[in-house]
Amino acid sequence: MNKVLVVARNEFMIAITSKAFLVGVLLMPVFMGGAIGVQFLTKDQVDLEPRKIAIVDKTDRLLETLIKRSETRNLSGIYREKEEPKVQIEPKFEVVDAGLSDTEEGQAEALLSDRVREGDLFAFAVIEPNAFEIGAIDSIRYYSQSPSYQRLPNWIRNSINEEVITTRINDLQLDPKSVAAVTQTIPLRQFGLVEMLDGVQADAKEENRALVFGVPFAGLMLMFMMVMSVAPAMLNNVLEEKIQKISEFLVSSVTPFQLMLGKLIGSISIGLIMSSLYLSAIYFLARHYEFADAVPPSIYAWFMFFMLIALIIFGSLFSAIGAACSEIRDAQSLMTPVMLMVVIPMMCLAPVMDSPNSFFAKVISLFPPATPMMMFVRIAIPPGPAAWEIILGTTLVVAFAIMCVWASGKIFRIGILSQGQTPSFAQLFRWLISKA
Amino acid sequence: MVLPAVELEDVSKTYGKHIAVNDLSLSVPRGSLYGFIGPNGSGKTTTIRMILRIIHPDTGSIRVLGHSEAAAANDRLGYLPEERGLYKKLTVRRMLRYYASLKSMPRHEIEREIKDWLDRFELGAWADKKIESLSKGMSQKVQFIASVIAQPSLLILDEPFSGLDPVNTEVIRSAILDLRNRGTTIIFSTHDMGVAENMCDSVFMIYKGNKVLDGTLSEVKQQYAADSIHLQWNGHSSALQEIPEITRVIDMGSYQELQFSGDPQVILHQIIERGDVDLFKVTRPSLHDIFIRIASPDSVPSETPDLTSV
Description:
The structure holds two protein chains of two kinds. Chain A is of the alpha/beta class. Chain A has helices at 2-16, 19-42, 63-77, 108-118, 151-171, 176-182, 209-243, 247-250, 256-288, 297-324, 328-347, 349-354, 359-365, 371-380, 387-415, 425-433, and strands at 51-57, 93-97, 123-127, 140-144, 195-197, 200-202. Chain A contains 16 helices and six strands. Chain A has a four-stranded mixed sheet with strand order 2-1-3-4, sandwiched between helices. A two-stranded antiparallel sheet of chain A has the order 5-6. Chain B contains ten helices and 13 strands.
C-alpha cells in the first residue's frame, strides 16, 4: 500500500504543479469571469447601420402605423435609458412603402428580393388583406437575407399585432381597459409539500424554479467536466509513460496493479480538489446572494460521493485503454464505447429532469455507468428518489466501480508491457479472463 | 551455505503458440557479474522480466535473493531496461527521489545517495534542472543512477552501454565494477561479446528459448577445441575460401578469425602461398565466434557442444 501512495503522491504532485492544472483550475474562474466581463463590455457593440424595410401593405391600413411607430422608436427607443449624452444601442428601423405599381404587384417578392440583394433594402414584408380577420394565418411574411437578425422581424410582428388587436377591440366596441383587465394572467406560485413536524403543520417551502433546475444541471455539468478533465488525462499519462519506456522501469519496482491504483488515486485526488474548489466558490456565491440555505448540505455530499465513483469508474477504464495502446490514435477506437458511457447521462438529462420519478428515470439512474450523474440529478430535484432506489443504485454503482478497477487492472497488467498492434475488443476480453 | 542470487528451475513461458523460454534452469552466484547473451528474440528479456516478477512463468520456480514471493525481494533489485525513459518534466533530483521512494528507501538515505551519485558522475550542478534540459549522455547517466540509487543487492542491466560515447562508457563501466566489488550481484545483458568477455565472470546464452551456454568464461571456452586461427595478413578474405581445410572465415576488421579442420601447418603453408602473413595463432574461439556459431542462420546444431552443464 505504501508504494501505491508513493505513486499517487508523485502523480498528484506532477499534476498539481503543472501549468495545465494552474490554467485549468485556478485560472478557470478568471477566464470565466473574463468571458462574462467581455460579454458585458461588448453587449452594446452592435451594428448601428439603419435597417431599411419595405412594406407591401395589402390592407392599406398598417403601413402608416408602422412608419409612425418606427419614427417614435427611432426618437426614443434606441438609446440607453437615463443616460446623457444619449448613447445609441440599437439601429434605427426605417419603414418605407414598397412603392410598386399595379403591374409590378404580381412580381412583388421577386422585385423586392433584388432590391435586398442590391443593398437598397435590408428586408421587406408583405401584409395580406386578411390580416385583420380573426383566425387569419399566414397574413404577414417577412423576407431577408439575414435570417439570424431577429430584432427587426420581432418588431414588425409585435407592432402589427398590437395594431390589429387594438383595431379588433375597437371594431367589437369593447373597452380596451376592460379587455386588458379581463385578460390579465394570474401568477402561479409553486410550493413543495406541507409536512407535519411534531404534530404541527409546517409551512411549505416555495420552490425556486431556477434552483430546482439549476442545481442538478450545474452539478451534472461539473461532474461531466471533471470526468472529462481527469479520465482522458489519465489515458494520456499512462500512454506517454508507455511510449517513453518509463513503465517498464516502474513495474520493476511496483506491480502493474499498484502502479494503476496509485495513478488512479493521484488523479482522483486532483479531481476532488478541483471539485471542492468549484463547490466552495459556488457555496460562497450562494451565501453572498442569500440562497445558500436553498441547497441542503446533503446535496454537496452526494455530489462528492458520486463524483468520486464516476472518477474511479472512468479513470480506471481510461487508464486501461492507455496501457493497451501503443499510439494515441489507436486509443480513439477503444475510447468510443467508454465515451458513450460518459455521454449517455447528458443525453438523458432532459427527460430525467422533466420526470425524475418516471420509469425511464428510475431505470437509467440504476444503470451503473449512468448512476453517478443520473442519481445525483434525481436526488437534487425535490423530493428525490425513494430510499430503496438510492441504496440499490449506490450498491450497484460501488460494485460496478470495483469491477471496473479489477478489470482495468488485468488489462493494464498485460497492456503496459505489450508492444505493437493495438488489441481488438476480443483480445482485451482474453486478457481479462487470462490467469497471467 | 550462501544461496544463489537468482535460481531458476525448469522455467517455461509461452505466448500463444510461441515458446519464449523452454524449461530453463539457471543459478547466478552471489557477487558475480553474470553475462546474459543471446540474439534478439531469443528469450533474454522474457527471462529478465520473470526474474524481476514483471511477468510470471507458466511452469517452474524462481527464487530471487532467497525469496520465491514476488514482492519480497523487489526493493533489493535494481533494473536498467534496454529501452529507457525518464520523466522529461521532472528535475533530476525529484525523479531520482521518486524512483528511490518506490524502493522503500528512507528519505535521509535517498538525499545522501542522490548527492553521492550525482557528484560521482559530475552531474551535481544539474540536480535541480529538468531532465529535458540534459544532453543524451547525461540522461543515460541519470537513468543508470536511477537503477542503482536504492543500493540494490541484485542489479540487472540490459545493454547498459547502448548509445554511450567512449568516455561515458568508461564512467559507467567503472561504476559497475565498483558495485560488483562491493558485493552487488550483477546480471548483464548485452549483444557486445567483447564487453561480455572483458567484464563478466560467467556467461549464460539463451537461443530460441533454450539455454545453450552457462558457466565461467574459461569453462565455456574449454568446451570448444582449439579450432580457430587468428590471422593478420595482406591478402583478401576471398582467397582464404579456396583453402579446403578452412570451414569459415569471420572478418573482424584488423584480423580474420578462421574456423578450420585438419592440420593448421598445412593451412599456414597454403596461406603463405597467397600472401604475406603477419600473425598466425591457433586458439580457442572467442565468445563472439561462439555466439556466431550458435546463433547464425547456417549454424549446425550438432557442431555445438553441450555446454549447459559446465
